[in-house]
Amino acid sequence: MGFSAHLYEKLQPIWRKNITHPFVQELGHGTLDVEKFRFYMIQDYLYLIDYAKLFALGAIKADSVETMGKFAALLDSTMNEEMALHRAYAARFGISLEELEQAERSPITLAYTHYMLHAAQNGSLADLVAALLPCMWSYWEIGKELSQIPGASEHAYYGEWVRMYSSEEFGDLARWCLDLFDQLAEGKQQAELDKLETIFLNTTRYETMFWEMAYRKELWPA
Ligand SMILES: Cc1ncc(C[n+]2csc(CCO)c2C)c(N)n1
After folding, report:
1. What per-residue confidence (pLDDT) applies to 37?
2. Which residues line ligand 1 (CB under 6 A)?
3. Given a cut of 90, is residue 93 above it in pLDDT?
4. Could you tell me if 37 and 94 are in contact, meaning their C-beta atoms sit under 8 angstroms apart?
């Protein structure tokens, strides 16, 4: 069993809190309050700006030209495809690009992205991948599960989101990330594996906290 499969099994109750979160379920059933989705889109756009930097750091820490090229491609697709989806959604909700980029990061957005950037900057390539994996993997799983709900992929507001994260193309990216993680974990000492587990666990928890933050439209105290 690869290390990712081991963590998936071990952390299942915590992992499942993402797919079962009311924000995710209501998005899939088309009942999510549009204002909550609007809030999510703005914070997620800010999240992606920092997340993309993890891919740039991945290219720096890569141990082969092939891995370096893949991180460069991920940086490109995040900035120009995923963020383009957010910009298109924002336009539909009447949010200008300026408003999007000048919005303030919520406490959770800031904590989550800074945690990942700290792990990526100060740790090994494996630490960096442990930080970014729950984001990729959980969205892929969510996309696939939501796409099974009748009408979810065709929903006027949320269909595009479901189609993007359940696509084969996105699945290939997530699988690449999983394989890289397993390769990097192979042969590592227990202490290093424990560190990878902690990073993976914490970013899995941060994913749930991000859904909760969006559901409550939680910003800084006044
Ligand atoms: C809070 C939050 N977590 C995960 C993702 C998903 N995501 C972010 S970057 C990336 C890689 C490919 O572009 C993926 C799948 C998100 N958007 N927001």
Report:
1. 95
2. 44, 47-48, 51, 77-78, 82, 135-136, 139, 173, 207, 210
3. no
4. no
Residue with the smallest CA separation from ligand 1 atom 14 is: 136
- Determine the topology of domain 3-216 in CATH: Heme Oxygenase; Chain A (1.20.910)
DSSP track, 124-183: -HHHHHHHHHHHHHHHHHHHHHHHTSTTGGG-TTTHHHHHHHHSHHHHHHHHHHHHHHHH
pLDDT digits (tens, 9 = 90+) for 1-41: 899 999 999 999 999 999 999 999 999 999 999 999 999 99
Asked whether the beta carbons of 166 and 147 are under 8 A apart, the reply is: yes
Atom of ligand 1 nearest to the CA of 77: 13
| Catalytic status, residue 177 | no
Q: Does pLDDT of 214 surpass 90?
A: yes
**φ, ψ at 103 (rounded to 5°):** -65, 155
Residue type, 119: A
Angle at the Cα of 117 (from 115 to 123), degrees rounded to 5?
95
Q: What's the 133 CA to ligand 1 centre distance in angstroms? A: 10
How many A from CA of 189 to the centre of ligand 1? Answer: 29
Domain limits, the chain? 3-216
Residue whose token pair is 């071990």: 10
Q: How far is the CA of 135 from the centre of ligand 1 (A)?
A: 5
Q: Would you say the pTM of this structure is higher than 0.90?
A: yes
141 is catalytic: no
